[in-house]
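Example record used in the benchmark description.
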Amino acid sequence: MTSTLEPRAAIAVHPVAAPRPLPDPATLGFGRIFSDHMFVAEWADGRWHDGRVVPHAPLALDPAAAALHYAQAIFDGHKAYRGADGVVRFFRLADHARRFARSAAGLCMPAFPEALYADALHAIVRADERWVPSVRGTSLYLRPTMIGTEGFLGVRPASTYTMFVICSPVGSYYGGDALRAVRLWVETDMVRAAKGGIGQYKAAANYAASLRAGEAAKARGYDQVLWLDAARHEGLEEVGTMNLFVRFRDEVATPPLDGTILPGITRDSVLKLLAHWGVPHRERAVSLAELRAAHAKGDVLEVFGSGTAAVISPVGALGTAAGELVIGDGGPGELAKRLYAAITGIQYGEQDDPFGWMTVLG
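Model output (structure tokens):
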């Protein structure tokens, strides 16, 4: 589907009557507290209508809505940061807009125009600017979402949709130290996505597919899952809901985007920084057997994940039925710490932005 909505359409703002008190930044956690407002727009008759900022409130849905029955639901996730200078900045806003449109196309949903996406994000953050926390390590998490709203029970794309954006002031994803090394269970039975499916899109269904394995990993005493390929359970794919990197002695490797792996914005940021620093790296397949053999020789220096929520998530141990592989000394590695410092330094306006990643709130 293509959109016929003119970009730069006016966005009406309907402010909340009684703004709520702001939370203590020390108690934020991740995704539990929501700001005063939300952005909403509807698709019908081949165009987007009535983009507006309104008080955060429940949505009214027909019980037969396509999102509820056929999982026509996508989302994205990015952040607005307040620097020490007080300026609020978005990280890679245009890239998130493009990924949102790509996910929509993958699920036969209408594109949300990139210009309107930027306008919507600016409008909602302007309305809730006081909710952007100022403590280092905190941010305002932005969750653009699109759902099929037409009420019907035939299996086809819906004819009506709602796009909305909600905002949540957040701290560290895992709580406590932002660079705490996580422990992963290597999942050799359940799968998150298969080639030819929708693993490359930020679709709600992909996350539903990950829940059972994630809970099983936690029951074993691990934080999350290391996913393997669906066909042979040999190739490394993702770290929970993050992209995977392995630092071998001679290079950094990350699995290629072959249709099952989400094209992470932070993943791309890591690759650009590695190239900028002259660190040898490749997008290539990495098997569990290769990882085991390299680990036995002491050639696995680091494993880490990358994603919007945690930025960089070092991996301290991998659990398998044959025993546990401790990575390095079990704590955050040198490169993970360097990448985290560089990316967050740019996000908070503390370092130069050589790639033009940051957009100042207008």
